[in-house]
Amino acid sequence: QGKQKKARKYAVMKRMISLRDERIKEKDRAKAPVKKKEDPSAIKEREVPQHPSCLFFQYNTQLGPPYHILVDTNFINFSIKAKLDLVQSMMDCLCAKCIPCITDCVMGEIEKLGQKYRVALRIAKDPRFERLPCMHKGTYADDCLVQRVTQHKCYIVATVDKELKRRIRKIPGVPIMYISRHR
Asked: What would the pLDDT profile of 96-111 be if each residue is shown by its tens digit?
């Protein structure tokens, strides 16, 4: 013997108690909100996001040689896999002097990765890299980079992380550097 199918009833919906029901106490009854008429002569206030003064349309005037490049953890790891000299590749890409910058959060993230990523740690401790101190709690590097780039538009972000690139593309005037096809 098989299981019998139950036929669903047509157009069944949950019953709701109406506001006029005697079971609802007087104090619990919701009163319809009274709509105020808008004065057409009144000044309407809108909150418009303030764009930084360094942006001239889509062009960021703070960017210029020597370029300051914020480096992410996975960018260092991918440069090792692609056998690229990080600073030299950046200079070849931009045809100008580049100063790679690394935040405390990114450094902490590389140190957490352990012994397997000791080459990346040695590259990150290179004296050519400028170390940027972090004043916030936690060591989540993606949030740190996004926050820093939002405050100061003078950085180029070097990352391979798709999620981080998607977040940075929403911030106007911030260029992204990434590794593709081993260059």
From this structure: 999 999 999 999 999 9
16 lies in a domain? no
Buried b (16+ CB within 10 A) or exposed e, 22-39: eeeeeeeeeeeeeeeeee
* CATH label of the domain that carries residue 83: 3.40.50.1010
Q: Evaluate if pTM is beyond 0.70.
A: no
Range of the domain at 75: 62-177
Give the DSSP letter string of the chain: -PPPPPPPPTT-------TT-TTS-GGGSPPPPPPPPPPTTSPPP---PPPPTTEETTEETT--SSEEEEEPHHHHHHHHHTT--HHHHHHHHHTS-EEEEEEHHHHHHHHHH-GGGHHHHHHHT-TTSEEE---SSS--HHHHHHHHHHH-TTEEEE---HHHHHHHHTSTT--EE---TT-
Q: 47 in a domain, yes or no? A: no
Number of folded domains that form the chain: 1
pLDDT tens string 14-54? 677 777 777 777 777 666 566 777 777 777 777 766 777 77
Residue 180: name the closest of 81, 71, 73 by CA: 81
pLDDT for 12 equals 65
Residue 86 lies in a domain: yes
